Amino acid sequence: ETDEYFQKLDSLRQQLRQRWQALETRRKALDEKRAALARENGGSDVKPSDKLKLNVGGQRVVVTRKALTLFPGTRLEALFSGRWESKLQRDCRKRIFLDVNPTCFKKIVDYHNTARIAPQDK
């Protein structure tokens, strides 16, 4: 009975190891794809400290890249991570153009800035 238990345990351990290896392979492939997108779309030299000049619904907004990429997995993080830098729409003054409500966008930026400087809850 003990041998049977250890065999099952060993079998489960092997299955977990195989799944972990598959996930690790997939993660590496995604990392490579992300890096390739950054190279292809002009985001290889972006820094969190970059000040982005935006045209938001006709209003000028200046914000750091770090503020817009604060929350991983969000649309703002994806847009301003640098992976799509050369694909972002720009106005005649080379400002990034966003066709959104400027009042709402500024509130989102304010929230990001507040979250960035606020102490983390534990």
Keywords:
single chain; 122 residues; alpha+beta; three-stranded mixed sheet; elongated
Structure write-up:
- The chain is α+β, with helices and mostly antiparallel strands and 122 residues long.
- 53% of the residues lie in helices and 12% in strands.
- The protein has helices at 2-40, 65-68, 75-80, 102-117; strands at 51-56, 59-64, 96-98.
- A 3-stranded mixed β-sheet has the order 2-1-3.
- Strand 1 and strand 2 form a beta hairpin.
- It is elongated.
- The mean pLDDT is 91.
The proportion of strand residues reads 5-15%
User: Globular, elongated, flat, extended or rod-shaped: what is the shape?
Assistant: elongated
| Spatial extent as radius of gyration | 22 Å
Mean of the pLDDT scores?
A: 91
What would a concise description of this structure say?
The chain contains 4 helices and 3 strands; from the N terminus they run H-E-E-H-H-E-H.
